[in-house]
Specification:
By secondary structure, the protein is mainly beta. The protein folds into two domains: 3-111, Immunoglobulins (Immunoglobulin-like); 117-286, Glucose Permease (Domain IIA) (Distorted Sandwich). Helices cover 12% and strands 44% of the residues. A hairpin with a 2-residue loop joins β5 and β6. It starts with a strand and ends with a helix. It binds zinc ion. The site of zinc ion has 5 residues, from loops.
């Protein structure tokens, strides 16, 4: 299902008010129509004729990168944060060939994701603060991973759907499941866990550049790939990596091996997907066409 905005009165009046010719945009659509929280999705702008030269935009505080598709429409990825509720505003800037520009704001409905919440009856132990020097290390490592995600907005897009699953194996813990204590969400699983023995292969889901390889306190041996255009994937608890920082990887290429490094109880791959700084369900990336 696709939601279509065929020049609603709001859009029409904005277009009439601005420098763009009426009908500069045929439709703004997104897929899926109602976006589940914690997922990545696509936004399509269909220009009417040659009037629009460029579209920029922002959704959930992250920049959008529109690229021309074969049918002449402009398509961008966007992400809904897992804690988003209700309508989020999609802000678009349409730049005309004659230099004029017009802004559009459209509400995108974000709906609840199907995430399991486990009610805890006793206070969770894992909520205990770490010793200050450990907490500082965790914070610094987290900031470095987030810097990779932010920098990806400045990397030209290298990815092309369809995306390849990093492993073919069973998913042992899905994205987004959480624990609740006293009506407060105390923790969320912000990745997808794939089963695997130590040494099992992990594949790149798309073309990208290896942006970070290091040993982190929580994540153990980690590897992050910048796919460009705001898209980053991360691989945690590795036993080994098969590529180095700066290497270009291709879809399906073996990049690393499953391990049990960092804070884990057994070997598995924790896979994370980010659009900018928004961590999303990797399954929504694999579902993109
Ligand atoms: Zn995990």
């Amino acid at each position: 299902m696709r939601r279509t905005y065929p020049l609603s009165m709001t859009v029409l009046s904005l277009l009439l008010a601005g420098a763009l010719p009426v009908g500069a945009v045929q439709a703004v659509t997104w897929h899926p129509e109602s976006v589940p929280q914690g997922t990545i999705f696509t936004i399509t702008v269909a220009p009417d004729g040659e009037g629009v030269s460029r579209v920029t935009g922002v959704f959930a505080d992250e920049r959008l990168h529109f690229e021309s598709s074969a049918d002449g429409s402009l398509v961008a990825l966007a992400a809904a944060p897992i804690d988003a509720r209700g309508d989020l505003q999609l802000r678009l800037e349409l730049v005309a060939r004659d230099g004029g520009a017009e802004s559009l704001t459209l509400p995108v409905p974000v709906v609840a994701g199907e995430y399991r919440m486990q009610e805890l009856t006793v206070a969770p132990e894992f909520g205990r603060p770490q010793p200050p020097e450990i907490q500082q290390r965790i914070n610094e490592e987290s900031a470095r991973a987030m810097a990779v995600a932010r920098n990806s907005h400045g990397t030209p897009r290298m990815w092309e759907p369809p995306f390849v699953a990093p492993r073919e194996s069973r998913i042992t813990s899905g994205f987004g499941h959480g624990r609740v204590f006293n009506d407060q969400v105390t923790s969320r699983h912000m990745g997808t866990d794939f089963a695997g023995a130590v040494g099992a292969r992990i594949r790149a889901p798309a073309r990208g550049v290896v942006a970070l390889v290091d040993a982190f306190f929580l994540g153990g041996n980690v590897l992050y790939i910048d796919h460009g255009g705001g898209l980053v994937t991360g691989y945690l608890h590795l036993s080994e990596h098969e590529v180095e920082e700066g290497d270009i990887v291709e879809p399906g290429q073996v990049i690393a091996r499953v391990g049990a490094t960092g804070r884990v109880t057994g070997p598995h791959l924790h896979w994370l997907v980010r659009y900018g700084t928004i961590t999303v369900d990797g399954m929504s990336l694999l579902a993109l066409e």
